[in-house]
Amino acid sequence: MVVNGFVNVVISTVERRYDMSSTESGIIASSYDIASVLCLIPVSYFGGLGCKPRYLGIGVFIMAIGSFVFSIPKFTAAEYEVVSNGDNLCHSSNNNTMECDNKIDSLSNYKFVFYLGQFLHGAGAAPLYTLGVTYLDENLPLRSSSLYIGIFYAFAIVGPALGYLAGGAFLNLYVDFDSVNSASLSINSLSPRWVGAWWVGFLLSGILALMISIPICGFPTSLPGSSAYKAEKEKEVYDNKKVHTTEIAPGTKGKLFHVWAAVKVLLTNPTFMFLNLAAAAEGNILAGFATFAPKFIEYQFALQSSTAAMYIGYVAVPCGGGGTFLGGYLVKRFNLGIKGIIRLCLGVTLPCFLCVLIFLVNCENVPFAGVNIPYPKALNGSTKREFLGIFKTDSCSDNCHCSMEDFNPVCGDNSVVGCQNLIPDSNPQQYANCSCISTETSGMHAVIGKCGTSCTYLPLFLPIFALVMLLTFVASMPALTATLRCVPQKERSFALGIQWIIARCLGSIPGPILFGKLIDITCKLWQNSCGEQGSCFIYDNLSMSHNMLAIGLSGKFLSSLFFFLALIFYKTSCDENSNITKMNKPNQNGNKNSGDKRSKHETQKPETPGGKSIETSLNELGNGDVKQNGDGLNQSGSTHQNKNVEDKRSKYETLESSDL
């Protein structure tokens, strides 16, 4: 809930409050995954050898500390100052020029505190999605594990979705509501200058994390019956004849030289590697949209930050949680093997190409004089200016000495103003004698706030965007299940760690930074304080939509390609041994196949999960039965003994799982 909920909801508010660009806020989001990459190798490997619940409990405790650190700027920075509505009126001289001091530098430096808090979030979550998932998989039956892991991931999606909803509600509270009477303010939540209480969710989640960290540490290393479940799952492991896992000898547990043997097993598994690359492509898109989707909707459709967060929450709850649960259910319902699972992932990823085209739909820019539209003809007869990009005033507002530090837009009948008087007791606040409004406009009045938009595309955008999210999350649970099944049992914790590293280094770490950079290049009006660039005031909607479309299409193309390659390269020991087991079975006459056919495959005898050949194991089992029954067996006893051996032979020969 904390990381993917509250952080993503408040990202635009934090930018506005602490003078940051979208690229810098993207680094905040990526700090989570940077910490995960640094911690995953030691946590997943040594945690897989030790007590997994203990690692999980410590991780939750670290996440709690990260939440407290993330909220520190609220309590150490000065209170947020709201400029009075009358302070930005036009003056004959530049008496209201702000003095440059260290305030701006101190605010921008708080980004390092956010980096640290998010870094601790990532470090604490490192064991959660590796050791936690492996702990469930080890202690559940083969055909039920995907369902329960799906439930786990469904809650991992519903949590952030609830974070969007709760965070949006907190943003309706004033940032300093604990020390300032909100009723006395000259602004409300509709104002562009409004900063909501972004910090409340982090305090609450930090307290909750502290409370649950201790009980998690009390779980046992393994639950009753887990040994049988592990043996059942071993037969679906990808067959790599060139590399085999290495047993760790007593007294050398945790030695680092064993790590290389495990890495070699995983890196030479093509299905595992292509699934990792698919996860990276999907992670790039998910991390970017999770971080900036609220901001995209806020600026594209001219909404409040809290309203945009609410809409994303309404999409994320049913689509994220439902999609994750549905993916796990489909694997269980149709009893899918690895090939069937990968086909499912490919089948739900391809339709996303068409759905991503929704980003072609965009709203027109809200008109803003000197930024995306020219000034009208000034009252003194000067010609209008065509200008787009860097804010520039016209002669109608030359005497205003507008500050580039504060953003306090007002809307006139022609969408541009330049006002000299404030009309008292007006609601909403109105201005008079606005020189940039045409003389044909009665009273030359303007109203506080941005001009409205007539865009009606939001009801079209949200359902199709929800479909993209639903299909993306449907594939997430099956892809994880395929990853667990295609690697050796003893390497599964480590395999998830490797996958997280690849998916984050190539996906969710560069994803938010790339999205933030693409959003920054669409900015048309930057905050400027004493020569320092701050946050962005106005974006170009068309460019922002096209950038989102380009990165969405490219990500879905790559993930589809990697799922396809994972399917092509997949094979198991069952594929190699299916013909052999058939040849070893008795024919209709009760005789086995000819000796020359058996000798042809002598070196390819299938193995039991214990590592011995089937024939050797069965001989040992048969001898054990004879020895147990004694030398004085009569004919019926011998027949019974042979039947037991044949039953056990049939049990080991049926190694092939059903792949749809």
What CATH calls the topology of the largest domain is Growth Hormone, Chain: A
* N-to-C span: 36 Å
Report the total helices. Answer: 23
Per CATH, which architecture of the largest domain? Up-down Bundle
Q: Over the alpha carbons, how many angstroms does the gyration radius reach?
A: 32 Å
Structure description:
There is one protein chain. The chain is mostly helical. The chain has two domains: 2-93 and 106-221 and 228-241 and 258-364 and 455-569, MFS general substrate transporter like domains (Growth Hormone, Chain: A, Up-down Bundle), CATH 1.20.1250; 573-653, no CATH class. The protein is 57% helix and 4% strand. The chain has 23 helices and six strands. The chain has helices at residues 2-18, 22-49, 52-70, 72-76, 103-108, 111-125, 131-138, 142-170, 200-217, 226-233, 257-267, 270-300, 305-333, 338-349, 352-356, 458-485, 492-508, 510-520, 541-569, 573-584, 595-600, 614-629, 635-653; strands at residues 410-412, 421-423, 430-432, 446-448, 523-529, 532-539. The strands form two sheets. The chain has a four-stranded antiparallel β-sheet with strand order 1-4-3-2, with no helix packed on it. A hairpin with a 2-residue loop joins β5 and β6. α22 (614-629) packs antiparallel against α23 (635-653). The longest helix has 31 residues, at 270-300. The protein is globular and about 80 Å long.
